[in-house]
Here is the input.
Amino acid sequence: MDTNKIILKWYDKEKRNLPWRESDKNIIDVYKVWISEIMLQQTTVSVVIPYFQRFILRFPDINILAKAKIEDVLTYWAGLGYYSRARNLHKCAKNIVENYNSIFPEKYETLINLPGIGDYTASAICAIAYNQHEVAVDVNVKRVISRINNKQNLSNIEIKKLAKKILSLERSGDFNEAIMDLGSKICKAKDPKCTICPLNKICRVFKYNKKALLNINGKNIFKKKIIKYGNCYVIGREKDNKLFFVRRPNRGLLGGMLSFPSSLWVEDKNNIPNDNILKNFILHANIKNCVHHTFSHFKLILNIYEINIDEEINIEGEWIKREDAIHQLPSLMKKVASII
Ligand code: SF4
Here is the structure.
């Protein structure tokens, strides 16, 4: 049996039920495909599902998303991380409404020029929503294709070329989803389930190079993350029981999100730089506790300083009641809020 037929046969029996795969009368909703693929970048399926469901309820189509305020979009993204994705999503929705009559373009070359859409998302939309002969190379696809060919350190272009050799012409979208599901359920990075894998008879790494299954692309999957340190200031105002928040700069981690003021995050815990205005607070503040948080490429330990004041602060920001701010905060800042 051809490789793609084996993969699709397995997929028809084992595919994951995911909310963005639900369709009316078998018509795939390109809007849902787009939102899900953007959310799934750097984030696992189980984390994305509740965010996706809330997001679709609030922004059920591209016109509603385009008309929404960015702060509202960020609120529904709060906790999902990589906030530039949400800002680009919003820009992209406006662009499609204004320039493409609210209809998602079908051509890869057009899609790739839209805000926040790179090769992966353009390929996923072409393949999954429009059933075109494309392959979206995510980490699962990369792992499965590398392993069945017994090759390491392949570029995305090389992975794509190899995948296209076995791609189903009639069911390109399903083929893409099938490889992603196989990578997630069977051909896992650690401890792949080769004995029950539908591809074990043709998989070259399983046949010839089992020791390569210990890692992927030569990277040590147990590599330790670096640790960064920072200070975070929870400033309360007693007269109206509000807390002081700032908006983080658009560029960088937690970009554009509501946050408690904090210092830069650095690797030297003895030299945490402090903003001059905030530095004074340390003198009067109580160290409340530490918050530990793990980002994809480093761990963060934040010292939390808590202080109550009644004067104005000379920093751009806003006073908000805790209960009104909490749902707008990214996960790290929710953790900070939870200990005060
Ligand atoms: S046989 Fe093992 S390594 Fe090969 S594709 Fe299947 S799970 Fe992955």
